[in-house]
Amino acid sequence: xxxxxxxxxxxxxxxxxxxxxxxxxxxxxxxxxxxxxxxxxxxxxxxxxxxxxxxxxxxxxxxxxxxxxxxxxxxxxxxxxxxxxxxxxxxxxxxxxxxxxxxxxxxxxxxxxxxxxxxxxxxxxxxxxxxxxxxxxxxxxxxxxxxxxxxxxxxxxxxxxxxxxxxxxxxxxxxxxxxxxxxxxxxxxxxxxxxxxxxxxxxxxxxxxxxxxxxxxxxxxxxxxxxxxxxxxxxxxxxxxxxxxxxxxxxxxxxxxxxxxxxxxxxxxxxxxxxxxxxxxxxxxxxxxxxxxxxxxxxxxxxxxxxxxxxxxxxxxxxxxxxxxxxxxxxxxxxxxxxxxxxxxxxxxxxxxxxxxxxxxxxxxxxxxxxxxxxxxxxxxxxxxxxxxxxxxxxxxxxxxxxxxxxxxxxxxxxxxxxxxxxxxxxxxxxxxxxxxxxxxxxxxxxxxxxxxxxxxxxxxxxxxxxxxxxxxxxxxxxxxxxxxxxx
Length: 488
What we know:
Purple Acid Phosphatase, chain A, domain 2; 2 domains; 13 helices; Metallo-depent_PP-like; Calcineurin-like phosphoesterase domain-containing protein
């Protein structure tokens, strides 16, 4: 068994709340990587190397690696260089391949938009003189070698001489690896389309047309909702004073008044954009006397508003009952159709690796169309969504080997009694022999590098405690200012 892929997700590089972003006293990205980033790179490279049989392992950045939604591109780009320095240090043996796979999420969906635009421009150039392609490609193939380039990441890599010529390929929104007879597969997806909030326009379409609200194919879901994802996470940072105050959507969701204001502001912004860009008036009637503005407000309340309410209680569990149902639908519907179209069959044994929720776990879930329960693995996330980590929050890296065994490297969770549990390998019980064998091999290497991982844990704990204190102080200062203004 040889490890082929290591998956990291929800790094949110560039965001000040990310445990991996290193800011100086001026609030700008520091020259060198943070202590957490350095310790992660050292321990991860030492652990991966013996499991790869000397072959470079492909790094999979599975969405929200770059915090493009709310952070300036320059800040994000400099923070990405810190990841490069940690995982591909100059002058050291290269454990990770220089061919990187990127699967964009909601915060870095713009990377896919750039790839779509490039593909359309190239298609125009390659078409016969009188021919024009009908549209941009909405999704990529899930299987095979990705053909779309991530030009932003590749341009950043050229800033390190030893990384020039490295490639970053994009698969979106799904990527899958399968065995020779396609009986087994591992599917990678950031997780935003499992979340009903990001399928808002599909819901609107279904309400108007009276059709399936969840879409029929991956391409249809992206075609209907890609612009909505762009609006939320590419335009949100330009929403003036409100946009700059809402550092993350989760922070807003944790406050009832703020989430109500968010829903109101979002509905007004959508209506305004429809008017200025498409000439659609808010009082235009759609159906049964319902106007455009009323429909937009209803949809926003149904998704953003109610999601906000659930998120405030959502840290008590890794997935709600509704989220489990959405996950099962996503795999048995759109993903199964895509796999059957590309592989000629739906794999009997399938695992799903996703992120987005910032709550790592590993479990088994039954889904229609699959002969065996799915192995479901979540990578967690690297941002402080609120002043302190909740019990379910944390980060993990996923390992996938050449036999399609999957293991979770649980990197950190909240501190219990002032102590943080050490890094360890975990799996879905004894789901398959391949999974169990990889978990065992991974744990052996973790123990062999325990000193390095303990140093990482100490650095992470220190960063979380420092960030928590700064967040509390910021909120207290904000509350003090509000009270002072009210008194005056």
